[in-house]
Amino acid sequence: MPHGAAAEHAALKLSEARLRTIVASEPECVKTVDRDCRLLDMNPAGLAMVGADSIDQVRGVSLLELVVPEHHARFERTVRDCFAGETVLEQFEIISLDGTRRWMEQNAAPLYDPSTPGVVSEMVAVTREITERKRYEASMLEAVRTAEQASLAKTAFLANMSHEIRTPMNGMLGTLNALAHTALDAEQQGLVEVIQRSGQSLLRILNDILDVSRIESGHVPIDALPVRLSDLVHDVVEQFRHVAVEQGVSLSVTHCTDSTGTRLGDPTRIAQILRNLVSNALKFTPEGAVRLEVCACSAGSSLVEFVVTDTGIGMTDAQLGRVFDRFVQADETASRRYGGTGLGLAIVRSLATRMGGTVTATSGVGEGSTFVVRLPLPAVAATTPSSSTSPCEPDGEAAGATQPLRVLLVDDNELNRQVVAHMLPAHRYALTLCASGAEALEQALRARYDVVLMDIHMPDMDGIETLRRLRTEEARAGRAATPAVAYTASVTNDEVARYAAHGFQGCIAKPVEPARLAETLRRFTAG
Fold first, then answer.
1. Which residues, 6 or more positions from 8, have their beta carbon under 8 angstroms from its beta carbon?
2. How many CB atoms lie within 10 A of CB 136?
3. 120 plus 162 within the same structural domain
């Protein structure tokens, strides 16, 4: 053999030996497979994975005998794709010779025949065991499923609790409202007001808990509607005017010029943020002043800044650091001294974040506190009436100056029916009361109504089924659909969306305030 050829042959032998050593010492399985899925060769790590003592034990064996039957198709596809010239990453499960199930991840590539260009002679694959990873992934998926089920259970629980608590509260607050408009002496009037304030406090606690749950689950939609900030802020402050007067605290509002026009935002959520901040400021300000300032961050800027400043008791740095945490108040005695759930500021932060804004706070013990909320609210032309106007009883034209608005109220609770009847003056509303879905269906088909207030949770036939049957009968008779509003204590976002999907044009939460009820009915005019 010529000297040059001998040297080349020796180099080739050395290269082969080096490659065999690398493959033999590789901790992952290295194997070659023919186009019929038969094993041609496998390194020691691979033999250990399949439970074989030597290559002779498995050489020529179809790997489909090791792969679990449900993964045969994917393994055959991998081999087919490799022999078509593709590189493939695939996962599959095998049952080794000792009966152990193992998950494998395989990188497979074509090995071309050097004597026949373009022809793939074998598939070369590097395979690693991923059984532990798969177990971890399965445990994580199970944890996610468990968390989702827990979240659904929590949502269902809150919806049920909301209904069970709101229903008697509707009767209590509605009756108190009716009682407050009767002939009472000063002492009796004062007692009624105390009960009303207590009931409203309980309702706020319930609403805070429901709001936190909805916000955390991402079920709070953010609207983009034209809103006059000056009107919205005025309405918010006026809601707390009597509280400030009773405490002897000055409550004021300051507007910059750029903040008085119409902006695009969610009036309901902006008002909720400001109510929580003003309420919190008044709660911790036994004397002095609370001021709300509204200003555009710069001329022509879409960023609007709401600043609530008080001269109250203030907070330490440690208290300030946790003031936006859920169920946390400034100190352990705060809830006993001032009441509340410790959720209001957590809701403020969550809503501000959802709206693409921020909230910050500064404070000092005995020096009061300042909360700053910055929200992106683009300026718009004020061509649409503000969505932030105060709820009020409709005027004669809106309610139908020529005839009262015809209202059909459906509620299986007698006290709730009486409460609504007291809220709707006869000269503005022609009210018909029904105690069941079946009775309401019969009545709605016998006479014409401008709107139906439908309780959702009723025995025998619930509100959704009642409306479905009403729509069917109206369509059969060629009648126009009667507008319907859900009147219910179950008012989570998912539930309200479900009502809308079933044809309800609105939703009123129990316990309802007279102004809120009138505001809703104002949308429907007598025909």
1. none
2. 11
3. no
Statement: residue 478 has pLDDT above 80: yes
295: domain CATH number is 3.30.565.10
| Tokens linked to 227 | 């809103």
Q: Which residues contact 34 (CB under 8 A, 6 or more apart)?
A: 40, 122, 123
From the list 435, 406, 414, the residue with the least C-alpha distance to 526 is 406
Domain edge (last residue) among 178, 194, 216: 216
95 and 50, same structural domain?
yes
Indicate the pLDDT class of residue 398, thresholds 50, 70 and 90: very low
pLDDT at 86: 93
Looking at residues 292-308, what average pLDDT do you find?
Answer: 86
Say whether both 309 and 367 belong to one domain: yes
* d(C-alpha 291, C-alpha 370), whole Å: 9
Strand partners, 434: 410
Q: What is the CATH number of the domain that holds 79?
A: 3.30.450.20
If asked whether residues 356 and 457 sit together in one domain, one would say: no
Distance CA 374, CA 359 (A): 6
Rounded Cα distance, 471 and 505, in Å = 13
Place of tokens 């971890």: 136
- Both 237 and 335 in a single domain? yes
Average pLDDT over residues 465-489: 92
In sequence order, the 6+-apart residues with CB closer than 8 A to the CB of 299 are: 258
Mean pLDDT of 254-261: 76
87 found inside a domain: yes
What pLDDT does residue 346 have?
Answer: 85
* CA 375 to mean position of chain CA atoms: 20
Residue 6 inside a domain? The answer is no
**Helix 437-446 / helix 463-477 crossing angle, nearest 10 deg:** 20
Q: Cis before residue 511, ω within 30 degrees of 0?
A: yes
Residue from 426, 469, 425 nearest 444 by CA: 469
Dump pLDDT digits (tens) for 352-364.
988 899 999 999 9
H-run or E-run covering 309? strand 303-310
Residue with tokens 């509605």: 174
Residue pair 295/305 in contact by the 8 Å Cβ criterion = yes
Question: Which are the contacts of 239, defined by CB distance < 8 A and separation ≥ 6?
Answer: 275
Backbone phi, psi, residue 243, to 5°: -65, -45
Return mean pLDDT, the chain: 82
Residue 16 is predicted with a pLDDT of 65
The pLDDT tens digits of the residues spanning 95-110 come to 999 899 999 999 999 9
Most confident listed range (3-17, 234-248, 319-333, 508-522)? 234-248
Place of tokens 């805070």: 208
Domain that holds residue 204: 149-216
Residue 134 lies in a domain: no
What CATH number did the domain enclosing 503 receive?
A: 3.40.50.2300
Predicted TM-score of the model (pTM): 0.47
| 235 and 305 inside one domain | yes
